[in-house]
Design goal:
The complex is a heterodimer. Chain A is an all-alpha fold. Chain A has one domain: Orthogonal Bundle (MetI-like fold). Chain A has 15 helices and 2 strands. A two-stranded antiparallel ribbon of chain A has the order 1-2. In chain A, a hairpin with a 2-residue loop joins strand 1 and strand 2. In chain A, helix 3 runs antiparallel to helix 10, helix 7 runs antiparallel to helix 10 and helix 12 runs antiparallel to helix 13. Chain A is globular, with a radius of gyration of 22 Å. The two termini of chain A are 21 Å apart. Chain B is mostly helical. Chain B has a single domain, classed as Orthogonal Bundle (MetI-like fold), CATH 1.10.3720.10. Chain B is 79% helix and 0% strand. Classes of the chains: A mainly alpha, B mainly alpha. At the A-B interface, helix 1, helix 3, helix 4, helix 5 and helix 7 of A face helix 1, helix 2, helix 4, helix 5 and helix 6 of B.
């Protein structure tokens, strides 16, 4: 029973959104219909460009996040003595849990023309005048996205790395494989469930972003979340629903693909215990 | 030769970790510094006392607290029920997957979806809708935390309780709960932290209400950030850090026992 309530509370809204996405906007209200005009409005003109850009920013920033999160998770899983694992993981959880809009405001202060980075650079004579590309730029947006979503990606990767049976690694050594090929042929493939789960998390976060792109990218910098926000601002709920549905369906497709390749219970094996 | 290279690689790796941590923690500092600027002659804490006399802000603060406490109460309970069901009845992983979905839906999409859901049900924006959207957000985390604690609970104790004549409910309250309650408390604190961490989903479903977090967000979009908003951000950061400290303390004590 409570499980049914939870399922309804999660799936119900997503299903209704899909329904509303076919409705029509009438004035400030909407009326039931089966119309594809919201999708047509989304898949054309500037909104299509925003979609394509969001996919590119999502993929590239998720790749950068993985490049950072993987070595971190690997070091924590393999090079740290048992007693230190939890404290170090905790260090990565803390910034993730502080309100990320507030953290993004902070970045805009740090990176602004009069912010601490620019004043330091000018004071030290490294830059003659404040750097303009620090804020309202791709650099700022990527920095904001990476610091917002990367910390959480360490956890699933660490979870699958720490679940690897050490004997497989030792067996590979005994069969004469070097450390690099052992990593490439044993450790990396076995950690893929965590890596791909983390990648999806990072991609979806960046793809549907609202705050980072607005605060650090400037008003012209639009990601998918911003188009949903502007549809909401004009009370165009059917359009917002259509864009949301595209984002959700894309995400569900990725998750289902993931579940086809990997077993969730394998990744959560340690957590689920003896079930 | 390889040992030396290995050491060098290790050192490089840990420097990367340290550098990343500097970048992750840097944003926690500026609000505190800015909150003590532009205070004029009204004393160090002028921006903080200005919050107290701002009616809208105080109302937003109350909403944040009430919603936070409700989320901290409801999420762990739902998560506990879900975790029990998953463990006892061996529910297929599909259900497990559904609970984790909110982790992967963009915040604003989940906000739009929840807003439309309540609109369809004829429920107008209120504390209830704000709480619901935040419970959905906190649930996957609370669920994973409680599953972790439950994994450390050996089901043989429950079997023993059954054999001593306890029914399912007695076995849960008298045998299992005493062993897993620190995990439930942890999930509650975590849910409260996640409630403080939430802005975007809430801003879509709140209607006329405001939480501190959505107030900051709408002020930024309308007029920009003023000094007392920096004070507000500082309070939010400090509250989160205190709660995290509590969580760490709880965890350390649990591990020592």
């Amino acid at each position: 029973m409570p499980l049914a309530l939870i399922v309804v509370l999660i799936l119900g809204p997503l299903a209704i959104t899909l329904v509303v996405s076919f409705w029509q906007k009438v004035g400030f209200s909407m009326r039931p219909a089966i119309s594809f005009e919201n999708y047509a409005a989304f898949f054309s003109g500037t909104r299509l460009n925003v979609l394509l850009r969001s996919i590119w920013v999502g993929v590239s920033s998720a790749a950068l996040m993985l490049l950072l999160a993987y070595p971190i998770a690997y070091l924590i899983a393999t090079r740290l003595r048992a007693g230190l694992v939890r404290p170090v993981l905790f260090l990565f959880a803390v910034p993730f849990l502080v309100n990320y809009v507030v953290r993004t405001f902070s970045w805009s202060e740090i990176l602004s023309r009069t912010g601490s980075v620019n004043t330091t650079l000018v004071a030290l004579g490294i830059a003659e005048r404040p750097l303009d590309w620090l804020l309202f730029s791709d650099f700022a947006v990527y920095l904001g996205l990476i610091t917002a979503y990367m910390p959480f990606m360490v956890f699933p990767i660490w979870l699958s790395l720490s679940g690897i049976d050490r004997r497989l690694v030792e067996a590979s050594w005994m069969l004469g494989e070097g450390p690099f090929s052992t990593f490439r042929r044993i450790v990396l493939p076995l950690s893929m469930p965590g890596v791909m789960a983390a990648a999806i998390f990072g991609f979806v976060g960046a793809f549907g972003e609202v705050a980072v792109s607005l605060i650090l990218g400037g008003t012209g910098y639009q990601l998918l979340g911003n188009t949903i926000q502007s549809a909401l601002n004009t009370l165009d709920y059917p359009l917002a629903a259509a864009i949301s549905s595209v984002a959700t369906i894309l995400m569900l497709a990725l998750i289902i693909l993931w579940a086809q390749i990997f077993d969730l219970r394998l990744l959560l094996g340690k957590i689920m215990g003896r079930t | 030769m390889t040992a030396k290279r290995g050491k060098l690689a290790n050192a490089l790796g840990w420097s990367l970790v340290a550098l990343v941590l500097v970048f992750l923690y840097a944003p926690l500092v500026p609000p505190a510094i800015n909150s003590f600027r532009d205070v004029g002659n009204d004393g160090m804490f002028a921006n903080y006392s200005a919050i107290l006399s701002d009616g809208r802000l105080m109302a937003a603060g109350r909403t944040s607290l009430i919603v936070g406490l409700l989320v901290a109460l409801i999420s762990p309970l739902l998560a506990l029920l879900a975790a029990e069901v998953v463990r006892v009845w061996r529910i297929p992983r599909l259900v497990l997957g559904v609970i984790l979905i909110p982790l992967f839906v963009p915040g604003i999409s989940m906000g739009v979806a929840t807003a439309l859901f309540f609109q369809t049900l004829g429920i107008s924006p209120s504390l209830l809708t704000i709480t619901a959207v935040q419970v959905i957000w906190a649930l996957p985390f609370a669920f994973l935390i409680i599953l972790t604690v439950m994994a450390n609970f050996d089901p043989i104790y429950r079997e023993a309780a059954y054999m001593s004549g306890a029914n399912r409910i007695q076995a849960f309250f008298e045998v299992e709960l005493p062993q897993i309650h620190p995990g439930i408390l942890g999930a509650a604190i975590f849910s409260l932290i996640l409630s403080f961490n939430e802005t975007i989903r809430t801003s879509v479903v709140q209607g006329g209400q405001n939480t501190v977090q959505t107030y900051l967000w709408s002020q930024y979009q309308q007029v920009g950030l003023s000094p007392n908003l920096h004070a507000l951000m500082t309070i939010l950061i400090v509250a989160t850090l205190l709660l995290l400290g509590l969580l760490a303390l709880l965890d350390a004590r649990q591990n020592r026992l």
